[in-house]
Design brief:
The complex is a heterodimer of chains A (501) and B (198).
Chain A lengths: L1 H13 L2 H19 L5 H12 L4 H26 L8 H12 L3 H34 L4 H17 L5 H14 L3 E2 L6 E2 L13 H19 L18 H23 L5 H15 L12 H16 L1 H7 L5 H12 L8 H4 L1 H22 L3 H6 L5 H20 L2 H19 L4 H24 L6 H4 L1 H18 L1 H14 L1
Antiparallel strand pairs in A: 1-2
Chain B lengths: L4 H20 L15 H21 L12 H23 L9 H14 L6 H34 L7 H22 L11
Helix pairs in contact in B: 1-2, 3-4, 4-5, 5-6
Classes of the chains: A mainly alpha (501), B mainly alpha (198).
Keywords (chain B): Membrane, Transmembrane, Transmembrane helix
Protein name (chain B): Tripartite tricarboxylate transporter TctB family protein
Organism (chain B): Neoroseomonas terrae
């Protein structure tokens, strides 16, 4: 089988000492930020972008991916033990997990979360491996019009699924696209919106925007809120599950894996959405549904499997189409582009080391996380004893050095500071930063495909509706938009996201 | 009418950015749909942004109330003073010769001074002291070196959180200097002066 030969090749890449080490570093950092509230994967990955540049592209992506799925593991630990979600995707885990901990079953909850995540990670890694080449061959038949419509759909869905007002989120997406226009026009070489600043001729700094809006703005918002951290009181207890718990958790893990795998592929989806989706499902269909609210193990097993599965499968649109499904994936696109690799359907063939190595490393990373999390859980909980007043200057300094070292230019530092202020303002006004980042990454690509499509069609805009793939994408986008304007559905989404983060 | 203050302010922000973008875009040739010029896509995206901004504005008139905490006169005053003094300082620095007027230093000085003025008011400190510390780091990095920049930025940012103790800050500075040296100089070997250069 081709798949196994390719996977074998992937493991030969992933198991080199250097890649193994960076995978471990990524998983450790991911777990740490998963445990710590107040710093998420988006901020961390943008913070660490500059550090990865000295490494080959494959190593860099392996480490950054490790941070992302590592955070999903780590987030569940504090959710269960302290009722404190480290990441948005573990918000629902607090509902049942913390109750289980209070019933003295914290150990079982942690075990099922870790084992479920590992199982989900294994399955979804296989899904990525199997569907990658398949989708790639489909993607190669895409014309520029299809690409444009696909990106358009991605932007619409990422805005529709964002928290709060849909119109505002679409506004932020559009603002991101508009900011993507800054810099040299690719076809004519004309400078656009640069104010004669040479540093802007390559466009607004992607890393500056990500660090400012997710790193610096987060620090400021966290400092304004008084710190509320409880110290762990209860005991973890035995890590072993009882036979009955195991029996109940198994179907929940299977269902969670399925939900997460599907929702992860969706543009704008990802970990938070799928853990909530799985929780809702378990509450309806699982055998222990009458126990929900008092510490049902299904309520931990399902969502935890789902968020890990989703964090793996959200790589599919990136690796096959070059289109980021969420803000973390937008950062990955940025990392690849800075490394000189254009993400897209040709990546599987042009960069087999990267593609298969990443997939194999995901599985290796999941295995590492199992070891990192279960026996060493006490160590991670101690991390919470570090007060925020020591964390924020460290984050700030790392941001500052990192952004400077990108181009050895202090202009980037000031640019980041300005984005920090803007990001703070946006969060006060409930304007979402994540859609803006995705729009910013997709904007220049959309312009290129739009121009090419219109040139090929001799200026006839009907091309977007005549090509079947393109028409389908636009149709789905239209349905998504109309659906969200219906008040009943919007209310459902808002309450869902409020609970689910 | 139930005014939604947050939405109205968001709308103002989006509309003004769109208007500025469209105005700046007048310099670029639009081209035709078949052969798009450099101004075509910006016109589309900023135009859509304007349209959406107006949409947020109209919705904001009815879907409230969502009030925003009003700023006190002191907050207003020092914010305004910071903007004015910062801009003036930046402009003046730009006209000077030597280190002050070099490269991006005028921008950094302007931002730093402006933020420092605004952070006189206690409630502005998280926002503007962090920003000021960040700018200060950029300002002194190339002349005073990495160690001094870390020290200055950390000490300044420490004032944004009242729970800091002097001892803790000293420990943090030593820890961060050592860590950053190990990661960025020893391991990654980035090209940045570590100690002051004169």
């Amino acid at each position: 089988m081709d798949l196994f030969a390719n996977l074998a090749h992937g493991f030969s890449v992933a198991l080199t000492l250097n890649n193994l080490m960076f995978c471990l570093i990524g998983c450790l950092i991911g777990t740490a930020i998963g445990v710590l509230p107040g710093i998420g994967p988006v901020a961390t990955i943008s913070l660490l972008l500059p550090i990865t540049f000295g490494q080959p592209a494959t190593t860099a992506i392996i480490m950054l991916a490790g941070i992302y799925y590592g955070a999903q593991y780590g987030g569940s630990t504090t959710a269960i033990l302290l009722n404190l979600p480290g990441e948005v995707s573990s918000v629902v885990t607090t509902l049942e997990g913390y109750k289980m901990a209070r019933n003295g079953r914290a150990g079982a909850a942690l075990t099922v979360a870790a084992l479920g995540s590992f199982f989900a990670g294994t399955v979804s890694t296989l899904v990525v491996a199997a569907s990658g080449p398949l989708l790639t061959s489909v993607a190669l038949s895409f014309g520029p019009a299809d690409y444009f419509s696909l990106m358009f759909l991605g932007l619409v869905i990422s805005a529709v699924l964002a928290q709060g007002s849909v119109v505002k989120s679409i506004g932020m997406v559009t603002l991101g696209v508009s900011l993507g226009m800054v810099g040299t026009d690719v076809q004519t070489g004309q400078q656009r919106f640069t104010f004669g600043i040479p540093e802007l001729s390559d466009g607004v700094g992607f890393a500056s925007m990500a660090m400012g809006m997710f790193g610096i703005a987060e620090i400021i918002s966290n400092l304004e809120r008084p710190e509320a951290r409880s110290v762990m009181s209860g005991k973890i207890g035995k890590l072993m599950m009882t036979r009955e718990e195991f029996k109940r958790a198994t179907p929940a893990v299977l269902r969670g894996t399925l939900v997460g795998t599907m929702l992860g592929i969706l543009p704008g989806g990802g970990a938070a959405l799928s853990s909530f989706g799985s929780y809702m499902m378990e509450r309806k269909v699982s055998k222990g549904r009458h126990e929900f609210g008092t510490g049902a193990i299904e309520g931990v097993a399902g969502p935890e499997s789902a968020n890990n599965a989703a964090s793996q499968t959200s790589f599919i649109p990136l690796l096959t189409l070059g289109i980021p499904a969420n803000a973390v994936m937008a950062l990955m696109v940025g990392a690849l582009i800075i490394q000189g690799i254009q993400p897209g359907p040709r990546m599987v063939e042009a960069q087999p080391d990267l593609f298969w190595g990443l997939i194999a490393s995901m599985w290796v990373g999941n295995l590492m996380l199992l070891v990192i999390n279960l026996p060493m859980i006490g160590m991670w909980v101690k991390l919470l004893a570090v007060p925020y007043r020591y964390m924020y200057p460290s984050i700030m300094i790392f941001c500052a050095i990192g952004i400077y070292s990108l181009q050895n230019n202090v202009f980037d530092v000031y640019q980041t500071a300005l984005f920090g202020v803007f990001g703070y303002m946006a969060s006060k006004l409930r304007l979402e930063a994540a859609p803006m980042l995705i729009g910013f990454v997709l904007g220049p690509m959309m312009e290129e495909h739009l121009r090419r499509a219109m040139l090929l069609s001799r200026g006839d805009a009907m091309v977007f509706f005549e090509r079947p793939i393109s028409a389908t994408m636009l149709g789905i986008a239209a349905i998504a938009l109309i659906a969200m304007l219906l008040p009943a559905l919007r209310k459902g989404k808002d309450s869902a996201l409020q609970e689910g983060g | 009418m139930k005014l939604n203050t947050k939405d109205l302010l968001s709308a103002a922000l989006l509309i003004s950015l769109a208007a500025a973008g469209l105005w700046l875009n007048m310099d670029h040739t639009l081209g035709t749909a078949r052969r798009m010029g450099p101004g075509y896509m910006p016109a589309l995206s900023f135009g859509l942004l304007l349209f959406l901004g107006i949409g947020v504005l109209l919705l904001g008139l009815f879907n409230g109330p969502d009030p925003i905490k009003m700023w006190t006169p002191a907050e207003w005053g020092f914010l305004f003073a910071g903007a004015v003094i910062g801009t003036t300082a930046g402009m003046m620095a730009g006209g000077m010769s030597g280190w002050i007027g070099q490269g991006w230093n005028p921008l950094g000085i302007g931002l730093f001074v402006g933020c420092m003025v605004a952070s006189v008011v206690k409630s502005w400190r998280p926002l503007f002291l962090i920003t000021a510390a960040f700018c200060l780091f950029g300002l002194v990095l190339e002349t005073l070196g990495l160690m001094a920049s870390i020290t200055l930025a950390v000490v300044l940012s420490a004032f944004a959180d009242e729970t800091h103790h002097p001892k803790g800050v000293v420990g943090l500075v030593i820890f961060l200097c050592a860590l950053c040296w190990a990661v960025f100089i020893w391991e990654l070997d980035i090209r940045v002066p570590v100690w002051p250069v004169f």
